[in-house]
Write a structure and sequence with these properties.
The protein has 216 residues and is α+β, with helices and mostly antiparallel strands. The protein contains 6 helices and 6 strands.
């Protein structure tokens, strides 16, 4: 176990309640560092509350991007626990925030605070699998993603992920899930897939199908 892995495990163990940051049009995965522009009052208040405490938030995507002030029924119940790494305050009062997701979470309860929501969560752990079949699946997925990346004209160099030396298959699948171009519903389905073998199969099918479309 690396020092980073140990740090992530400690964060997961202690993670029960945090301010909620609703987002739209993007799904955040564990193991991913992600910039966000935060401008809505509830979201700004959630970031400010996290900075005053332990820098932890829950990030969840809203189902309808056009809802300006989303409530509990507007949010996907599965999101991520994340740590706020950096905050830049912009002249228009919005925040440029960099977060790092560290665990899938299921929201159990919304608690309305002053101009924000706090949420109680259960941490969701990946159902891991080992053995030659899983290793073969992961190698096939890496090769297929490489082909998908080369064929997809919408993928920029910033989307490229060097996967060859990644041994943690949970992290591998999250990196690919974040990089591939899918709609919000499809990415949310990947976030909610806890079984590693099922996630590998889904990603392999997606990369194969998208690659064939790009060849036409």
């Amino acid at each position: 176990m690396t020092l980073k892995d140990q740090d992530i495990n400690e964060r997961v163990i202690d993670f029960k309640t945090a301010p909620l940051v609703p987002i739209r049009n993007v799904i955040i995965f564990p193991n991913i560092v992600q910039p966000l522009t935060v401008g809505r009052p509830r979201s700004i208040n959630a970031i400010e509350a996290a900075l005053r405490k332990d820098r932890f938030v829950v990030v969840s995507t809203q189902k309808n991007e056009f809802v300006e002030d989303p409530g509990p029924s507007d949010m996907y119940p599965v999101g991520v626990g994340a740590e706020v790494l950096q905050v830049i305050r912009l002249p228009d009062s919005t925040l440029r925030v960099i977060i790092e997701g560290f665990a899938r979470v299921r929201i159990k309860r919304f608690v309305e605070m002053e101009q924000r929501y706090d949420v109680d969560v259960d941490t969701l752990r990946t159902i891991l699998h080992e053995g030659p079949y899983i290793q073969a699946l992961s190698r096939e997925l890496i090769d297929t993603f490489e082909q998908y990346f080369q064929l997809n004209k919408r993928m920029s160099p910033e989307n490229y992920v060097d996967l060859v030396n990644i041994r943690d298959l949970d992290r591998l699948t999250d990196l690919i899930s974040s990089a591939i171009i899918l709609n919000v519903e499809e990415k949310q389905a990947l976030l909610e897939t806890l079984d590693l073998k099922e996630r590998l199969h889904k990603l392999l099918e997606i990369c194969n199908s998208k690659g064939k479309l790009n060849q036409k």
